[in-house]
UniProtKB/TrEMBL annotation, chain A:
Name of protein: Kynurenine--oxoglutarate transaminase 3
A Gene Ontology BP annotation from the UniProt entry: L-kynurenine catabolic process
CDD domains: AAT_like (cd00609)
Subunit structure: Homodimer.
Organism: Astatotilapia calliptera (Eastern happy)
Pathway info: Amino-acid degradation; L-kynurenine degradation; kynurenate from L-kynurenine: step 1/2
Family that this chain belongs to: Belongs to the class-I pyridoxal-phosphate-dependent aminotransferase family.
Entries under PANTHER family matching the protein: FI04487P, KYNURENINE--OXOGLUTARATE TRANSAMINASE 3
Underlying gene: KYAT3
From TrEMBL, chain B:
Pathway annotation from the record: Amino-acid degradation; L-kynurenine degradation; kynurenate from L-kynurenine: step 1/2
Catalysed reaction, written as an equation: L-kynurenine + 2-oxoglutarate = kynurenate + L-glutamate + H2O; an S-substituted L-cysteine + H2O = a thiol + pyruvate + NH4(+)
Record-stated family: Belongs to the class-I pyridoxal-phosphate-dependent aminotransferase family.
Protein name: Aminotransferase class I/classII large domain-containing protein
Cofactor entry: pyridoxal 5'-phosphate
Pfam family name, one: Aminotran_1_2
Subunit annotation: Homodimer.
Source lineage: Eukaryota, Metazoa, Chordata, Craniata, Vertebrata
Amino acid sequence: MSIARQVLNCSRFTCRSAHVTCRKTFTTSQHVMMSRHTHAKRIEGLDKNVWVAFTALAADPSVVNLGQGFPDIPPPSYVKEALAKAASVDRMNQYTRGFGHPSLVKALSQVYGKAYGRQIDPLKEILVTVGGYGSLFSAIQALVEEGDEVIIIEPFFDCYVPMVRMAGGKPVLIPLRLKSGKKTITSADWFLDPDELAGKFNSKTKAIIINTPNNPIGKFVPVFFLQVFTKDELQMIADLCIKHDTLCFSDEVYEWLVYRGHQHVKIATLPGMWDRTVTIGSAGKTFSVTGWKLGWSIGPEQLMKHLQTVMQNSLYTCPTPLQEAVAQGLLLNYELMDQPECYFTSLADELEGKRDRLADIVEEAGMTPVIPEGGYFMLVDVTALNQDLSHMDEDEAYDYKFVKWMIKEKKLAAIPVTAFVGEESTKDFEKYIRLCFIKQDSTLDAARSILKSWTKV
Amino acid sequence: MGIIRNIAASLVLLRQSSVKNNHKVIMSRRLHARRTDGVDKNVWVEFTQLAADYKAVNLGQGFPDFSPPQFIQEAFCKAINGGPQMHQYTRAFGHPPLVKSLAKFFSRIVVQDIDPLEDILVTVGAYQALFCAFQGLIDEGDEVIIIEPFFDCYQPMVVMAGGKAVYVPLRPREGSAILSSGDWVLSADELASKITPRTKAIVINTPNNPLGKVYKTEELQMIADLCIKHNLLCFSDEVYEWLTYDGAKHIKIASLPGMWERTVTVGSAGKTFSATGWKVGWAIGSGNIIKYMKTIHQNSVYHCATAAQEAVAHGFEREYELFGTPESYFQQLPTMLHHKRKKLASCLESVGLQPIMPEGGYFMVTDISSVKVDLNDLSTKDELYDFRFVKWLIKEKGLATIPVSAFYSPEHSKEFDKYIRFCFVKEDSTLDAAEAILRKWSQKE
């Protein structure tokens, strides 16, 4: 059963999940206590999480992991060196400025000032957070509440729906749809229907969340889709935001990973959008250091000050030496911007090669890849394999069953795409799995061997 | 809704309309969520800025100005160079080596089998552990008892969770001279009188910031009895747990009978290993309660940074082996701070100030009522006495401290506006500089 579906139905909390064993013995006093000490209502139905379940399954070292989205390639050495250097300075091991370490917000203001073509105030228009995730949380907590509707495009990075729910808001879903009749599919073949989108806006709509490049498709979709929204599509979204006076949360964590022939456009740069957009970025995705958990939000002061209030009352400040190291990394690449040595460019080049390699591997195995225009995920249509999974749990969507079976029987991990859509869209996405290709060539080769021997049987 | 909340809400609307005049009209309806009403002010932002502006000798904000111990810095370096997985996501609820070493270490102390996966949540500092506790367990209308003086974040966190803060002050004991934080006590009757059917939790902080009080077993037992009688949760902020002086013993309320299943104990690597900038903290408690905090964590930050967790894990492995021996950092740090505590206290006494000797922690509260100064700064005339005094001390004498009424509720702050807080986890040279300022000042009088 899809996580999103459970969340949307506000299912009651149960002890069952893939890896947590339920403590069945309770003393009488614990029983009495638990009936009194229920959890706060805000977390009702939000306890399930696809990553918790599938990370555990893929943790077996014999499994080739193309599931969770993190690199198994090393980060650039200068970034690690900058961290070691920062950690050796006394002051860098103590608290820094709550809303963002001064050298980091200044570096962000420089890099993004260039990207946005405007002056960005480092103190008032930037907030440093615990990953892009933390920025999403701060924005949603600051600006969404009971009675607000938030439009989310399916498939979506899975945290958007529970975060909106936790803030008391109501997620309103709209799926990307596939243009029919094509043989080779790219993420550009998934599109947003303008009329359908317009129909989702109403007087209660507080915000729309977009993710470009998208995860998973590689378009504007979360995790699954790696699609890059075109300027026309963004303008359509922008026009609706302005018409209905809504906010836009633009999750651009994969902003530098755009492949040949495509261009990342920041919706905040479109006319009328700066004042109503919070744009989110990630050091983890930018520098291949997901374990640093640093991200940022950029936007106008009248929005950012509320995110800062949330930050000040939730974790107050982010780790200092990590922020200093990211600042150094940004400054170094700022000097190299638009040159091939710039990490933002060189990583995209490297990943384009891996993208093409994985697409070949997938096609050889008789499956159909959705070639992403950006990001580091690839959607794969497994229909042609015609894998019989009738022996598995009836209640789960096909892709969930397929991935669990594939991990167990073939020792290859992926992520099921319906974890990122609502119940109504399950039938449209349950033949897709998501593969991550920011992996060593040896990992991709291991995946090839598995797929080769699989189709031979 | 209290008068103060009403005023705060009106001020927000006023501010919103002035913002509208300066920018395009965004959101003809309400922009920010109500949960951020009235929680935007912060004493640290104001006073850190002031101390920096006047280049004051800073005994204000609570962090060391010396380095973390070498063994932990080495552990961090080792983690940084430790292979690609050190720079990628780790387990969301806590890096496995860290939760294992925390479970091992603290199981021995509370004499309770702590399950590393069920009973521990690693967070971005103790601050985020507190946030997860309030968000996961406090609902609209729930009352939370806060013992004053309190670390300032508890109140806005209760408010943001929709709860109502109910305050009970520590009071100086009647009669005898108030020489120690141990002379500040909680009245059992006063505490009991604050409990209503809506009371959900009580927040305690031991050793206490700012007073330095280390709650004795009988004091904790009194609180525990009320928790059990009224079926309350207890959030116990124990970030300064290793810093006790003169034989005072830190007791974990979770180790008292009937308390494990209802207590969340919060700890901090930043305070434990003098590395506040690493922002690694944890909550330890019965899995039945921790699980709700995990849901908040997984929907807010999800993971904490990997390398720092790896380093802290090594720190606890080392301390497990050296516990109770002179090489243990948990012995060395309080010994070092004991000397600094004495140094600061004599310096304050020598200029006629009356410090309240803290039994624990790294702050010292001083009674300033005997000091006669002309606070003629008109810009502060509507503020409480201690706020005005601290600002005057920064601007006129170049010495930064923190006003203690910032740690009190609006209803009690006026009773406690004659105290200021000094932080002594500083290099001797910083303490010497403060001493020089104070001597010069007292000589002028």
